[in-house]
Write a structure and sequence with these properties.
It is built from 6 helices and 10 strands. By secondary structure, the protein is an alpha+beta fold. The strands form 2 sheets. It has a 6-stranded antiparallel beta sheet with strand order 4-3-2-1-5-6, with no helix packed on it. A hairpin with a 4-residue loop joins strand 1 and strand 2. The longest helix is centred in the last third of the chain and has 24 residues.
């Protein structure tokens, strides 16, 4: 019995040593997490006038992030008018204030330029009403085109710009018609009683329609052409052409007036 007990002790001794050698390694005490950075309440005023209140998260040259109740909000820096932090015990700390000294936006030059162009075109309309002599009309046309072309460069309103340009175009077409007219001798029967001397000779101003600008003006302004001795249309009477073109120009100018008054 003593021998058996001794053998058991001899065998169990190494096992006990092994168990001691396999004891679990001691773990290092868990390191406390670094404290979360304190939230910085911020008020962001947008250029549109809206305000956003929340906690500042981050910012760079293009965007900034603010924590609001519904989550993270990304705001473009070019939309920010002012940005202020509210520090505990220190009140409001302004970071970026509105640029009060910034130059105000330049006024839109379109209305003034439109009125300037209208005034110049109005002079042409008055000249057409009294049928100013061709030379004076041509000089006024050149002067008006210079004023209108300059005004068009300052007008951003497409409708106004297009209408002013089309009005000037009509007055220019009238000038072309005048320049293309050629004298034509015709005979007309006297209208008052009988005349032993027969028909009277009349010099008419005619615009050929077999060449330019007569062909285009006839189609563009729907001018009824005159006919020759063979009853074939071959010309436009200058007075008829000018009357039709100036009527279109006047209607366009009236529409310019309505656009300016809007």
């Amino acid at each position: 019995m003593a021998m058996i007990i001794f053998a058991v002790l001899v065998i169990s001794a190494p096992v006990a040593g092994q168990r001691r050698s396999r004891s679990k390694p001691k773990t290092a005490p868990a390191r406390a997490d670094a404290p979360a950075p304190a939230k910085r309440p911020v008020t962001v005023t947008l250029k549109q006038g809206d305000q956003v209140e929340g906690n500042f998260l981050r910012a760079d040259t293009e965007t900034m992030e603010v924590e609001i109740q519904s989550g993270r909000l990304t705001i473009k820096m070019n939309e920010v008018a002012s940005l202020v932090f509210i520090e505990e015990g220190q009140g409001v700390m302004p970071i970026e204030e509105e640029q009060k000294d910034a130059a105000p936006p330049a006024p839109d030059p379109s209305p003034a330029a439109g009125r300037k162009a209208y005034a110049a075109l109005r002079k042409l309309a008055e000249a057409a009403n009294i049928k100013l002599p061709q030379g004076q009309y041509g000089d006024l046309l050149i002067e008006t085109k210079t004023v209108v072309d300059e005004a068009l460069t300052e007008i951003s309103d497409y409708s106004l710009k297009n209408q002013i340009a089309s009005t000037l175009e009509a007055y220019l077409d009238a000038g072309q018609a005048w320049g293309a007219a050629r004298p034509y001798e015709t005979r007309r029967q006297r209208t008052l009683g009988s005349d032993p001397w027969g028909p009277t000779r009349v010099i008419e101003q005619r615009i050929p329609i077999d060449s330019e600008p007569g062909a285009t003006l006839m189609r563009k302004y729907q001018i009824k052409p005159g006919v020759n001795r063979l009853a074939q249309p071959d010309h436009l009477e200058l007075d008829t052409a000018l009357k039709a073109i100036w009527a279109v120009a006047s209607a366009r100018l009236n529409y310019v007036a309505t656009l300016i008054r809007q």
